[in-house]
Amino acid sequence: MRKVEIVAPSGKVLCTDDIAKVASYFEKRGWSAKLASGVYDGYQRFAGKNDQKRLEEFNHATVDNGNDLVLSARGGYGMNRILPHIEFDRIYEKGTWVAGFSDITLFSLAYLAKVGGRSLHAPTASVLGKEATDPWTISEFFRALTVRKYGISFPTVAQDFYSEGILWGGNLTVLTSLLGTEFFPKIKGGILFLEDVGEPAYKIERSLLQLVQSGVISQQSCVILGDFTGIRYSGHDFGYNLDEALNYFLSLAKKPVIKGLPFGHTERMCTLVIGSKASIEVSDRVAKLVIYDGPELI
After folding, report:
1. Are 74 and 45 in contact (CB under 8 A)?
2. What pLDDT was estimated at residue 235?
3. What is the enclosing helix (H) or strand (E) of 294?
4. Please, how many CA atoms are within 13 Å of residue 179, restricted to the half-sphere of its CB?
5. What is the Cα–Cα distance from 111 to 47, expressed in whole angstroms?
């Protein structure tokens, strides 16, 4: 029997009923599901009783408890505080899969950078259990868990294109915060995917330009853009908006940029495997992303 444990390594859990509901989703599919003992604890904006307890629960869940999958309860903020003390080598040796997005991007990128580990850019328990979540999001999550290879097709305005590479990325703001650290992956010829939420358009542009100016974009085969939601505008924008920001990035990227992949802080989001071999093909305004190294947790 496969085992999953829900932990809270980042922000304080807000909707406990949603988290509990997700455990039943797994149990109905024949999994053994449990919630970490401190998943509902919190102090200030953080989960757990303190940083040390949050770290201990994450390390125990990923290394000591015999789990096949560790699912993050939510994102938020807090992974930065425990990142230097996560036992990446032991997680890799155990083969435990970790799933989450947003602030969990920190773990996924660090895991890839430190030991070449693969993880799931996937809805957290708080998203899976939310009433408004698209049923497709849930079905795609469980499909991705049980197969080795799978594809995601979506409409796009990009020109015809084909490439293969390592799939990596996540939340744009979180990703750029790792630049210059030991936790930032050095990927060449990769397929980089990006999304963000709640940022002004100019901050999205600034983060994208940071990736251009640091040489990250030039080393990739292409960039895939997901959803950029909750954009905050002010009187200082004078008509400048997200489209302006993204178009300026496109003018500098000098790499294929493919828009439209359904992922981000939305009710409809696919599950991706960070660190997997992947291919992306665009033909007649339809893109197909194929992931070759899924968990295959049957």
Report:
1. no
2. 87
3. none
4. 17
5. 21
Give tens-digit pLDDT for 19-50. Answer: 989 999 999 999 999 999 999 999 999 999 99
Q: What is the DSSP letter of 50?
A: S
Residue range 213-230: mean pLDDT, rounded: 98
Question: Mean of the pLDDT values across residues 224-241?
Answer: 94
Q: Are 74 and 54 in contact (CB under 8 A)?
A: no
> Residues with Cβ < 8 Å from 8, sequence gap 6 or more?
36, 38, 39, 40, 41, 47, 48, 54, 57, 72, 73, 74
C-alpha separations of 269 from 21, 92, 118, 163, 265 in Å: 19, 26, 19, 23, 8
Cα dist. 289→14, 16, 172, 256 in Å? 33, 34, 20, 14
pLDDT in tens, 178-212: 999 999 999 999 999 999 999 999 999 999 999 99
Instruction: Name the one residue in this structure whose structure tokens are 């990703």.
Output: 175
Domains annotated on the chain, with CATH: 3-133 (3.40.50.10740), 150-291 (3.50.30.60)
How many Cβ atoms sit within 10 Å of the Cβ of residue 69?
23
Q: Which two tokens stand for residue 227?
A: 């959803």
